[in-house]
Amino acid sequence: xxxxxIFPPLTLIYLALKSTVxxxxxxxxxxxxxxxxxxxxxxxxxxxxVAFALGYMEDALxxxxxxxxxxxxxxxxLIVHLMSKRVHxxxxxxxxxxxxxxxxxxxxxxxxxxxxxGLKAPFLLRTxxxxxxxxxxxxxxxxxxxxxxxxLNKPGLANTE
Amino acid sequence: MTSxxxxxxxxxxxxxxxxxxxxxxxxxKKEPARGALIKDILTAMASPIExxxxxxxxxxxxxxxxxxxxxxxxxxxxxxxxxxxxxxAENNKLREEVNLNARLKELLAYxxxxxxxxxxxxxxxxxxxxxxxxxxxxxxxxxxxxxDMAIITPLGVMGRVINAGANTSRVLLNTDxxxxxxxxxxxxxxxxxxxxxxxxxLYLKYIRQLDDVQAGDEVITSGLTGIFPKGLVVGTVIKxxxxxxxxxxxxxxxxxxxxxxKLEEVLIVTDIGTVLE
Lengths: 161, 277
Prior knowledge:
Chain A has helices at residues 7-18, 30-41, 45-62, 68-83, 92-117, 124-152.
């Protein structure tokens, strides 16, 4: 539970850097990787709430439509949670593949909902590029999150999970 | 019942949050003021990071331009190098101020020539997700900024304010798919609506097949909605095609103001003055 608290500030920093220093650099979808990690490693009601909160933050800070990214990230969480009973994302290749699929799914969910609202948005090329970059970074980011998690849950440190 | 809820609590919580998110997304247009407090809090938390990141970026560029390129000099004469770095840093700062001065002069000249009231603001950051086009500027309702005020530059229209916080405001860029601007084609006076394409360009909509619009035509604001002063350049037509419905043309427009990181200062139109339709 305690480690969930690191995701909102990290997302805030990520979004702030993305909108300034890395504005024209294609970055991996870090909030999506957080949700991926929570979904297959730490699925819980608090995890769903974090997925919703990260999406809400992204919508608020990018001036997007409220609920759009929240819906996408909660859907991703649910997909990962249901998949994790059958698929084990234990190898870097599986994590990269999973991240690619989920990033594409996120783009598709956003695109479909926007079309439903009546807004046109670019989809295929942009989503594929983003999915590829997210997949490339996924193994390293997930490994880092696992290390942070093991440090936080070390004996001697209070484990609130 | 309790065991069922406990067993499926994650799926139930997810389903509830999915329904809530869907409700938020579908009603966002109807309730634009919703979440204003949360937006303000998050923006207040993020803007120091954004400002620091922007400052650090300029610092790194300055170091690269003024320090890294002078490493050989350092090995020859450390004291001379230190003095040179200080002078270069000063020079860099002065050059930045000269650039800023030139940009502000341009804005000031434009301000004096225009018939409407404006205030100057700086762009703090660009809100970039996969499709939305927004920017954060450093003026809010403390400086008199209100929702739906036009944001322009001497080159043309940039967007409009969608959320005015205390000291910052969120601007909806023309390129965002939610942006709609009533426009007129300058050459033929044909009326239409400019909509963002979610990327770098714009669509000109509701132009009939029989209307005369060609590549190269300039598109200007009509002044009809009362948000944008009349006659400001929005963009230039780059492509016209027969639309899929055989009634309207499909027209691509390149925006007059490119929404890139080069954009640093903008004007907020606080009063559009008398609009003659």
